[in-house]
Specification:
mainly alpha; two-stranded antiparallel ribbon
């Protein structure tokens, strides 16, 4: 007698009485999985903003990281799924771009989002701050009392 023929096995199955699709408009199909994924992403961004405010992290930087991390997470999720199922995608490489057919990996999303956010934090944001600081120092009066251009300059 197989494990799947035991009398208690049907108790382990859950039958969902409604369709996995919410609505279809033209070629766009909204599914329950997609809706709850979007809600999860929004909740995660809001939670990270709230946590960032608690430690006085700039909200603009948090939004920048979210704008980089979320799409990178989607790309990472698809990339890892394709890598895990490479035998299939080697035969049909155009199917790699068929995102509407499904196939993402949760760990790929985590890895892709973290890698992109780390890259932006370590390389791009410091470059932007250097440009802003250089521009600000050229256009703003200095508050340093040791600089002659400062209104608080003391020549002693």
């Amino acid at each position: 007698m197989s494990l799947f023929q035991l009398p208690w096995f049907p108790l382990l199955a859950i039958e969902i009485p409604w369709s996995p699709n919410i609505l279809t408009l033209g070629g766009f199909m909204l599914t329950w999985h997609g809706l709850f994924t979007a809600i999860g992403i929004l909740a995660g961004v809001q939670l990270s903003l709230r946590m960032g405010r608690a430690v006085r992290y700039d909200p603009d930087e948090a939004y920048t990281l979210a704008l980089v991390g979320v799409p990178s997470g989607i790309v990472g999720a698809r990339t890892l799924f394709v890598a895990e199922h490479w035998d299939y995608y080697r035969q049909a490489p155009l199917e790699i771009l068929a995102l509407n057919e499904g196939g993402i990996s949760v760990w790929g999303a985590v890895i892709g989002g973290l890698l992109a956010a780390t890259f932006v934090t370590l390389t791009i944001l410091p470059s932007i701050y250097a440009i802003v600081q250089r521009t600000a120092s050229l256009t703003s009066p200095s508050l340093n009392p040791m600089e002659p251009s400062s209104r608080y300059y003391d020549a002693q």
